[in-house]
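Ticket closed. Logging final result for E3 ubiquitin-protein ligase.
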Amino acid sequence: QYATTGCSLTLHHTEKPEHENICQYRPYSCPCPGASCKWQGSLEAVMPHLMHAHKSITTLQGEDIVFLATDINLPGAVDWVMMQSCFGHHFMLVLEKQEKYEGHQQFFAIVLLIGTHKQAENFAYRLELNGNRRRLTWEATPRSIHDGVGAAIQNSDCLIFDTAVAHLFADNGNLGINVTISTC
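Final structure:
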């Protein structure tokens, strides 16, 4: 199916659907959390799409930045998204708040590379909450935007904390997460 975008594999028809689900040449979906944007396109078109259609996303330069999530006490499911640009690549930082069951909210923080799985393997990221003589750290390899935020949350492959922990580190309802990207 993705021969026109570069896939050169020839497979038996029974293996085709499985491969198409993971093919690196399949179109990229808009990496923004939430289901409102249905855009799809090539990897090269992802950043122009984000800059044009999602102008509210801030981009910070550098390998060590602070991702500030404001108003973490907003009710319901909320997403905070920011871009980090370093090492010639763009990384999408996402903090998502979900209510898993009545009255129990959880936060999920993750870094995605605007790139392929293979490119993502060249990097590591660290998320760190600091404050009140406490430190909470998560270190991992970024996921490709082909995986998306949902897969990371489903597999618990991200920094997860509840509202009580968020309040330990928050300042007037704002949560600062130190984000460090490094090469491997």
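The chain has five helices and twelve strands. No further action required.
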